[in-house]
Amino acid sequence: MTNQNLENKVKTSKKSSHESEVGLTGMYEPRPASPKELMMGAGVILAASTTIYASYKLFDYFFN
Description:
By secondary structure, the protein is mostly helical. It is about 60% helix and about 0% strand.
């Protein structure tokens, strides 16, 4: 097997798994979020807002 054939083999085997998802701009094509992802996002927002509110209430209680 010649050197050129080996190089071609390496180039074809190194194709990454996400290459088909990358569009012409080089960014990922947007896709709609699944219900699981939407619920996870809602949970993160709820947890963050609860934490902020609780720390505000504790601050108000101790320093007022």
